[in-house]
Amino acid sequence: MSSDAGVSVYSDNNMSEEKDKPLREDIRMLGRMLGDTLREQEGDATFELVETIRQTAVRFRREQDPKARQELDAILNRLSNKATIAVVRAFSYFSLLSNIAEDLHHNRRRRAHLRQGSSPQPGSVTLALERVLASGIDNASLDDFFAKAMISPVLTAHPTEVQRRSILDCQLTIQRLLQERDRIQLTPNELRHNEEALRAAIQILWQTRMLRSVRLTVHDEIENGLIYYTYTFLSQVPYIYAKIEDLLERHKGKEAPQVASFLRIGSWIGGDRDGNPFVTHQVMLHAAERQATLVFDFYMDEVSKIGRTMSLAERLIHVSEELEQLAAASPDIPASRIDEPYRRAFLGIYARLAATSRQRGLAVMQREQVNPTEPYADSAEFVHDLDIVINSLKQHRSDWLARGALRNLRRAVDVFGFHLASLDMRQHSKVHEQVVAELFARGTRRDNYLELSASERMKWLLAEISSLRLLHSPYLSYSEPTQSELRILQMAAEIQRRFGHAALPNYIISMTTGVINILEVALLLKEAGLLQAGENPQLGLNIIPLFETIEDLRSCSTIMDELLSLPYYRKLLDSRGNVQEVMLGYSDSNKDGGFLTSNWEIYKAEIELAKIFAKHKVELRLFHGRGGTVGRGGGPSYQGIMAQPPKSVNGQIRLTEQGEVVASKYTDPEIGRRNLETLVAATIEATLLSHDAIQENAARYYQVMETLSSTAFAVYRNLVYETPGFKQFFQESTPIREIAGLHIGSRPSSRKPSDRIEDLRAIPWVFSWSLNRTMLPGWYGFGSAVEAFVQQAQGEEAGLKLLQEMHEKWPFLQTLLSNMDMVLAKTDMGIASRYAELVTDAPLRNHIFGRIQAEWERSVKWLFAITGHTELLQENPTLARSIRIRTPYIDPLNHLQIELLRRYRAGDDVDQVHRSIHLTINGVAAGLRNSG
């Protein structure tokens, strides 16, 4: 083959539309360059081998040709361990490069759509505000919404983000160079230099180690999380606010007041210690300090850049008195700046920022030498100084100067403060229980806390929470777990003192099963000074129960009713603005009860919680533990929020952004901004638009869903927890045991040192089924549930007709089936069958895989029957195209992984085999994009 053979790698994507021509061209070019790199670095023979494997895998996929299967097996069986690594890396990078081209094309199509003046699309803030204003809502109601709204994506560190920072940097370089070709008319010489830079970046990519050599530490996860603020959040969050204010200004016909800062970023990275022994009090402090360092570095850079542009001379303008005072207060007034008040003012602001960073012990690089001055007490003082500058500029009609970078900086300070992101703490309820029991035993000599009834425990807890005395003493000795928890809480108080209450505002309780779990945390907070007891108590953190299992979801409204009925807890809540946050765990409920039941139980829980909170006149804020994949509650954010029950969003929502989805959503600033806008748009519409049509049919629809859920739950539980040998099938037909050795996260894969499915964390559970292309957590049980319902209905046609009506009118079912449609499209039962062959017990393999395959066929059949579709992703051609593009590179990785697993489990434990398995895990995850 010639060096142009890379074109053939993409020749079967069936992308004939003219609008996709640039995507085809980008993919061909990148494929050709990677092919050339492969020839240069590994030789012609390796290149030809890669292409042969790809073509054979495509034939096997398309035709399920037994001959192609035999040929593929023969090729893979002959591969040396060294050749295997080269082949795996080649397909992984093919997939990565196609992802880059695809993301660029999304941005390209969106810009073309906007240039043509087309109507805004669902998920845009523009369309959301247009819909709300067209509905007749008045300005006062809209202002009230923004005043009380709270929208917060929360970044979490989970072990499915497999990209190394070095690989991500190469990816960004390639992306930037492609954008340059797309947006700028390059001369022939510039085009040549651009192509050389692309080839250089791909060469770096090829010669960069794909895998981490050591396990990721929490410090690494903190650093990885921070890059998305630099890439996207610090620049794009202010952009969204400016867009909203400009839209409202045009609507009102005059300058609109500033919208309150409702969109904020949260983080669990460095504060989530549930099952992660590596998150210590020092680590939590490090997370807070690194976040603050980054935001101060950003502010000082922006102040320096803006100050240099502010060359406005006194003799040409008339500044405000406040601006004159601000300029005069600067400790550094060079002679060359004596008649430039704005530059002097910015020098003073810069000096105060430098002093503030030093006062807080942060290692921030100074760009300008300034004399010592008074530090800012808090970020509000910084905002005040920026407001003085903005108001003075407007006074002498320099509005354009007041709007651009200065306006965005002012908004960034209001949003990110001196802490950057709100860090959440999380710990398991059982840990709190043990610590409280020890505190009672040592502090009051009552050592039977764990033996008490629930009512007696509650009496003890309420008495101590309302008491001014402390249980712990520096003169007593405690076990290491108790000391660790006390140190964590003491550090939380220190972080609040140094960086403000917004730096660490939330405490989440995993596996909440009762009111006692919440009161135990309240007691522990009191011990650290984060709860001030007395007649008018003050609570320094939001205490957030997390309901995770199906059983806990079903009882959560009862638990919250009991909690909100406690007079002393209500006093604590009053000190937090009478807002109570509740978190719902999608991942564990899905693993516990299956896809359909998990979603339905969460939906019901939200309805009941809304009723309970209305009864107690307390404001509910829901925190959705949505993962990146459908198997962990993920899926498109706009549809997910719009599918929530009426009155459950109410302007306030938090949701987790997990695993590899963080990189795919927030690495590119334009894509990141669209994703953030989507959250805002959906929250606006879900809160302010009418849901009357849903309410009219609620009783009928809910009854049907209850029936479907009951059947799906039984079918799922029967397979996963009641079928003899299922654990063996799971462990042998997926790479779950090999995942444990991949350095992709600091957290252990199981909550306990066991191989029980019950103890396995939901993330590796979903990740494993994704890697073997079964995707079982995202659909299993649906087909049997629908089939049983239709057969039991009064006439099969009547049952199906009702389900079709529900799908047409009910956003919840629309979203549920749309997400399942996506998962079924990514499922490949042909490849899954090959993984099943790894199961050593043939009768067990045939029995369980036969059930899985039959259920998949039932699920597809009834999905089509309800939606009226004849193929998967019929209404989502963009995603269908995306899967077609990536499949030729993912499939060979799966086939290679199967062969490598077979070798490894047969005793071929050489380092190259183990490393190759991990490379295939990395490659498949990157190709699927939302795999775990």
From TrEMBL:
Q: Which UniProt keywords apply?
A: Carbon dioxide fixation, Lyase, Magnesium, Pyruvate
UniProt-listed Enzyme Commission number(s): 4.1.1.31
Q: What class of enzyme is it?
A: lyase
**Listed Polar residues bias regions:** 1-14
Renumbered to this chain, region (Disordered) spans: 1-23
Active site, UniProt feature: H158, K591
Q: What is this protein called?
A: Phosphoenolpyruvate carboxylase
